[in-house]
Amino acid sequence: MWKKASAAVLLALAVGLFYNSRPDLPEQILHYIGLPDFQTSSQSQTGLEQTICAAWEALITLPTRQWSRVAVGVNACVDVVVSGVGLLQALAVDPGAGLDHEVLRSKEDLKEAFIHFMERGAAAERFYSDKDGFQRIARAAAEYPGAKLYVGGNAALISQKFASYPDLMVLLCGPIGPKLHEMLDEQIVVPPESLQETDEFHLILEYKAGEHWGSTRAPQANRFIFSHDVSNGEMRSLETFVASLDEFQPDLVVLSGLHMMEGQGKELWEERLTEAVAAIADIPRDIPIHLELASMTDKDYMNSIMQEQLMPTVSSIGLNEQELLFLSQAGAGPHAALPAWKGIPDVGRVSDILLWILEHHGRSDPSSESDLTRVHFHTLAYHVLATVGEYWGNQAAAVMAGARVASSQSCGLHAVDVEKVELKAPLEFYSSHTEPREQLNLNPAEPVTVWRRGNVTFHMTPVLVCKHPLRTVGLGDAISAEGLVYSEFQAQQDF
Q1: What are the E-state strand segments in 88-221?
Q2: What spatial distance separates the first Cα and last Cα of the chain, rounded to whole Å?
Q3: Active site residues
Q4: What is the tens place of the pLDDT at every residue in 283-301?
Q5: pLDDT tens profile 350-363
Q6: 3 state DSSP class of 115
Q7: Can you tell me the mean pLDDT for 2-6?
Q8: Which of 2-16, 292-306, 402-416 has the lowest average pLDDT?
Q9: How confident is the model at residue 379 (pLDDT cuts 50, 70, 90)?
Q10: What's the CA gap between 68 and 215, in Å, rounded?
């Protein structure tokens, strides 16, 4: 026994000495011979990020056939980011006790709700029912020193990303006021019917960790969002959007904003979903439709989107980890009993849910009437693209492009800086959480892992996570748009 132990120690010392002279010793060798991982220095970790970043640059290529005209709708607004405490002080309201309100009807309600969530360090979003009162607050917020105005709304943010490609013509439909119109990229075409006299403002009241107001102290940084946004809430631009498609003749349609209807009541969203499905049915099947999902809490509403209404009529969907799990919970899918993800979502569980979506609500079966053949999943540490058959090409490049833009944009940069990012994705994982399953590895030099389950192909790539993110609002929209830019669609036909 002692001879074996001595041999192991000597081998470890030898490898350690060799590693010190060769810091590029592959991590896989250490793993293979069962020794501890000597890559503990920041230099060796940075080597992994450099390898992945270099591989992205070499492997990400545009498809042979690229989009030329993309139509995007229908939610758009101006995000006003401002100090929450500063704005409330400017509105001459005094600090006091916190109290949650499902709907805000006055400045007093706003103050109480803000304090309620600030003292918990929790994010929240509320509707402000008094239109005139909200407009006065919005003007004060926009004029407050240090306030920052951004393009807001999924459709507008997706359009901005598409417009960064000079050869791509972009149509944007949504409630677009003068300030938003001024902020949009000049390459974006806005139908006259989408223009309105006033902007839809979403006020984002930020607070810092440890910030005080009266007796309230924020345990962590977060934000409280509120608006009086009826145009987006009722998807009033939907008809304008559909009517514009005949003249614009897009080769890709992107739809977003469905989550805005959730709080408008079942009667309204049932009616509007029915109208959306009828409108989309008129779009030729050789034009793919991508649906960008967002956070929702009503399982009946999600089921209407998923089963009875919209999802089977679109070709592609984009969503994050909260939306993926809620979709499974609403439809009694895999891992629906899981209340929330703990840490980085398990790749096997994600793979199970993606497969379930495409098998139960997509076109993995040739006899299915559903058009859904692609799901783009993104979370902080990695992205997965799941596609059916041969409908989509260039998906390895597409998933890497989405990850690359997440890494750069979250750091406020145009390119990835390996000194400012870190790898958090697992280097080993399974294709499923249950048997039968395949053990898979992530190779930093070729950072796309591919596996198949039935007629569904999965492409997974890591994200180089920004260590000190500057702004993450709209990051999911940029990821989905970038993934679509690098995707190639084959016309829907039986395989």
Answers
A1: 103-104, 124-128, 148-152, 169-173, 188-189, 201-207, 212-213, 216-217
A2: 60
A3: 477
A4: 888 899 999 998 887 888 8
A5: 999 999 999 998 98
A6: helix
A7: 41
A8: 2-16
A9: very high
A10: 56
This prediction has a pTM of 0.83
Query: What gap in Å lies between CA 434 and CA 453, rounded to an integer?
Result: 13
Structure-token pair, residue 61: 């290529």
For residue 72, whether the previous peptide bond is cis, meaning omega lies within 30 degrees of 0, is no
Residues pairing with 456 in the sheet: 388, 453
C-alpha distances out from residue 331 to 270, 324, 375, Å: 18, 11, 16
How far apart are alpha carbons 155 and 107 in whole angstroms?
30
DSSP 3-state of 184: coil
* pLDDT tens for each residue of 128-153: 989 999 999 999 998 999 999 999 99
From CA 189, how far away is CA 199, in angstroms rounded? 17
Q: How many CB atoms are located within 10 Å of the residue 19 CB?
A: 17
Compute CA distances 25 → 7, 40, 47, 51, whole Å: 21, 13, 11, 13
Around Cβ 454, how many Cβ atoms within 10 Å?
11
38: left (phi over 0), alpha (psi -120 to 50) or beta: alpha
* Residue 281 identity: A
Joined together, the tokens standing for residue 30 give: 């250490």
Q: Label the pairing between strands 382-388 and 488-489.
A: unpaired
374-378 and 316-320 as β-strands: parallel, antiparallel, unpaired? parallel
Write phi, then psi, for 287 (nearest 5 degrees): -105, 110
Amino acid 469: pLDDT: 86
Q: What does the block give as tokens for 203?
A: 């006020």
Tokens 């590895």, residue located? 441
E strands, 257-367, are: 289-292, 316-320
d(CA 196, CA 462): 42
Q: What is the pLDDT of residue 158?
A: 97
Q: For position 44, what pLDDT does the model report?
A: 52
Question: What is the distance between the alpha carbons of residues 433 and 437, in angstroms, rounded to a whole number?
Answer: 7
Are β-strands 69-73 and 201-207 bridged in parallel, bridged antiparallel, or unpaired? unpaired
Q: Please, what is the angle between helix 475-485 and helix 395-410, to 10°?
A: 150
Longest dimension (CA), the chain: 84
Residues 6+ apart with CB under 8 A from 330: 299, 302, 303, 306
- Is-cis flag, bond preceding 436, omega within 30? yes
Helices and strands counted in the chain (H then E): 16, 24
Alpha-carbon distances of 398 from 209, 213, 259, 415, rounded to whole Å: 37, 46, 25, 17
Residue with tokens 């910030």: 211
Q: Which two tokens stand for residue 22?
A: 């060769």
Phi, psi dihedral angles at 12 (to 5 degrees): -65, -40
Residue (of 155, 68, 168) closest to 480 by Cα position: 155
Tokens of 109: 């309600």
Distances in Å between the alpha carbon of 13 and those of 2, 36, 300? 16, 11, 61
